[in-house]
Write a sequence for this structure.
């Protein structure tokens, strides 16, 4: 009775844990002994067969007795082989059961660990934590935006900058026009070849009406040059074109 109570309550956990191990060790020891017996019986069978072969012609009784002993050893060997197979099956079963038990124990410990980890966690706490993280992230973005967008010092008047830029552009335009000779266009007009006074053979002389047209063209050129100098550099192209037209017109008249 004391053994029963010792099994249920008095036996230590370590001994219960070592029970499968001890059982396997005992079975392996018995298996080793049976395997040795198998080898011994096989040797006995070979020996009796050799005796029978030796006396098969000279002493048939001895040969028959040897064969009888061989049969007995063979029967015992068959029983021993069956016992070996049974022990091996038991060892495999105990090992598999022990592995299953250890696997289940490991899974139970993992479940307890997860339960302990999740003991203070729930979906509401997770949602609250994620909401706080989003708020802090948004706050960080606002702070970074405020730091990078806030001007340092007094703001600069963009209108003043535009006016100053326009003055610089006008100054550069004036320098370019003075350097290329665009402004004094009257000098270029004066350097144009004079109209011929001699009569061209077979041609009529230039009448006063054409002189008036030429004078009006010169005035128009001068006015457009003044307007381009005052307002914008892009009228420089128009001045050049007008001058070219006038020169072509004058040369055309001389040819005709």
């Amino acid at each position: 009775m004391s053994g029963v109570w010792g099994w249920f309550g008095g036996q230590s956990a370590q001994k219960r844990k070592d029970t499968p191990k001890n059982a396997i060790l005992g079975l392996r020891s018995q298996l080793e002994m049976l395997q040795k017996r198998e080898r011994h019986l096989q040797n006995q069978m070979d020996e009796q067969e050799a005796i029978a072969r030796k006396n098969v012609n000279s002493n048939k009784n001895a040969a028959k007795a040897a064969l009888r002993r061989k049969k007995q050893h063979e029967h015992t060997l068959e029983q021993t082989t069956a016992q070996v197979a049974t022990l091996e099956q038991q060892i495999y079963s105990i090992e598999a059961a022990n592995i299953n038990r250890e696997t289940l124990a490991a899974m139970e410990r993992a479940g307890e660990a997860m339960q302990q980890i999740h003991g203070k966690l729930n979906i509401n706490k997770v949602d609250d934590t994620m909401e706080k993280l989003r708020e802090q992230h948004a706050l960080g973005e606002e702070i970074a935006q405020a730091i990078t967008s806030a001007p340092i010092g007094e703001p600069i008047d963009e209108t003043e900058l535009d006016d100053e830029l326009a003055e610089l552009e006008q100054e550069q335009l004036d320098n370019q026009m003075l350097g290329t000779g665009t402004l004094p266009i009257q000098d270029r007009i004066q350097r144009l070849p004079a109209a011929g006074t001699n009569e061209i053979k077979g041609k009529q002389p230039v009448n006063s009406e054409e002189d008036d047209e030429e004078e009006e063209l010169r005035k128009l050129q001068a006015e457009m040059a003044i307007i381009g100098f005052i307002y914008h550099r892009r009228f420089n192209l128009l001045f050049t074109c007008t001058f070219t037209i006038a020169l072509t017109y004058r040369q055309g008249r001389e040819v005709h």
Remarks:
- Confidence is low (pLDDT under 50) at residues 1-9.
